[in-house]
Write a structure and sequence with these properties.
The structure holds two protein chains of two kinds. Chain A is an alpha/beta fold. Helix content of chain A is about 35%, strand content about 20%. Chain B has nine helices and eight strands. In chain B, a hairpin with a 2-residue loop joins strand 3 and strand 4. The chains are: A alpha/beta, B alpha/beta.
């Protein structure tokens, strides 16, 4: 029998709204902890803080999904996306398999954990993410990842539209764009949780201990 | 350095659409949902005049114009439970009685587009149940059927539906430009923060410009035609 957990202290309300959750109806989604993104955003501390949570989550039997942004070099990106991507020195969408594209070893996927290969920011677009979530009857998503204003936020927005209940780990996400993290956290929590709620890694770890 | 718009270098009005997001009474009209919640509609009414000028220019040039409306089927089968719960926690639930009929429910007075920006015959209206105009709608089909490659995005709110739509449009390969004075949010800090995010990296999800600057581009191309 899967253990039922109490709601997790988070803002603006205790997550999930249903009042209870299990490791069967919830997934931990690690978005784009890829070498180049970790280096550019100086996310080493974020990665280090997440590693024990990931270990505890796995030990408890929790489901983990990984995002990995990149494009198929044989296909390329849509013309406009390619032009905007080529024009910026940072936050580049990399060709799959290239240097810097792989997930850092501390948070690398293990057998049984799906990796969502997404070319844009919204990991639901053009991928099987929603299909996998429906197949497993996932209702709640815990988000950590890079960058806060990029793939993390875009994917949380899409998760919200399909009716998933999202929790963002404040110290499990970061960015190199000044001010953007605060903006995104505020928008996420605006009203009664426009796109979900936010908490810290420690609070979630305690919840599953 | 902001990147140019359109990226192709030349504006093709037959392949460019004006998309006006959710300028509905429930978001920016007196007695609508936002007003009923006790939040100010002062900010969400600011884009009305710039959008009206943009629509005038786009109509004169014969461009594709698409209006979206956020809202749900009267039986609420397209309202996911968390969205309903949060809206009730917020004060007035979607589908519940508000000042102008049921909040954000299709067919109700509050759900319709404000009179100042009401669609003209021949303009397309897309009803959407989510924040992104691409979610569970025919929006992408409409754009492709019209051969649209670039979209001019205005409406409310900048931090919510406008943002979700622009991000998905960018991921799907559309060349977007955000009308900076044609969009707003309920809370100004969220609005300003979002404009800064959009402008970063030379325009990470697209360009940004004012209604008058975009109108001048449209007029220049229309006159040359």
């Amino acid at each position: 029998m899967m253990k039922t957990f109490q709601p997790v202290a988070s803002r603006p309300y205790a997550w999930p709204y249903t009042g209870a959750w299990t490791l069967a109806d919830t997934a931990l989604f690690l978005v784009d902890f890829q070498r180049e993104a970790v280096a550019e955003t100086k996310a080493e501390a974020t990665v280090a803080a997440l590693a024990p949570l990931l270990a505890a989550w796995r030990a408890a039997g929790g489901f983990v999904i990984h995002g990995r942004r990149g494009f198929d070099p044989h296909v390329g990106l849509p013309r406009v996306l390619a032009a905007r991507n080529a024009a910026r020195p940072l936050d580049r969408i990399l060709p799959r398999g290239s240097e810097g594209w792989e997930i850092v070893p501390e948070l690398a996927p293990v057998d049984g954990e799906p990796v969502i290969e997404h070319a844009g920011d919204n990991a639901f677009l053009g991928t099987d993410l929603n299909f996998l979530i429906e197949q497993r009857k996932i209702a709640n998503l815990v988000f950590a990842g890079l960058r806060t204003e990029g793939a993390v936020h875009a994917t949380m927005r899409a998760a919200n539209d399909v009716g998933l209940e999202s929790l963002l780990l404040e110290d499990g996400t970061t960015t190199d764009l000044a001010g953007a993290k605060d903006t995104i956290l505020n928008i996420t929590r605006f009203g009664s949780g426009l796109f979900g709620t936010t908490t810290t890694i420690a609070v979630l770890r305690d919840a599953i201990a | 350095m902001p990147l140019p718009w359109p990226l192709s270098g030349s504006l093709d009005l037959s392949r460019t659409a004006v998309v006006v997001i959710d300028m509905q009474t429930d978001f920016c009209g007196p007695n609508g949902w936002i007003d009923r919640l006790g939040q100010s509609i002062a900010n969400t009414r600011k884009p009305i005049e710039p959008i009206a000028r943009l629509l005038k220019a786009a109509r004169a040039a014969g461009m594709t114009i698409i209006h979206t409306r956020e809202g749900h089927r009267p039986d609420l089968t397209d309202l996911n439970p968390v969205k309903r719960w949060r809206s009730r926690a917020h004060g007035v639930g979607i589908g519940d009685e508000s000042n102008l009929g049921r909040a954000l429910t299709r067919g109700e007075p509050g759900h319709d587009i404000i009179p100042e920006l009401y669609p003209e015959p021949g303009e397309i209206v897309v009803d959407k149940p989510g924040k992104s105009s691409f979610h569970a709608t025919e929006f992408d089909n409409v754009l492709r059927a019209r051969g649209i490659e670039a979209i001019i995005i205005a409406g409310v709110t900048s931090d919510c539906c406008v943002q979700s739509t622009m991000r998905d449009a960018s991921d799907l390969g559309y060349d977007c430009i955000l009308v900076t004075d044609g969009t707003q949010a309920v809370e100004n800090t969220n609005h300003e923060g979002m404009l800064a995010v959009i402008a970063a990296h030379g325009g990470r999800w697209g360009a940004s410009s004012t209604a008058d600057e975009i109108n001048a581009m449209i007029a220049k191309v229309a006159e040359a035609a």
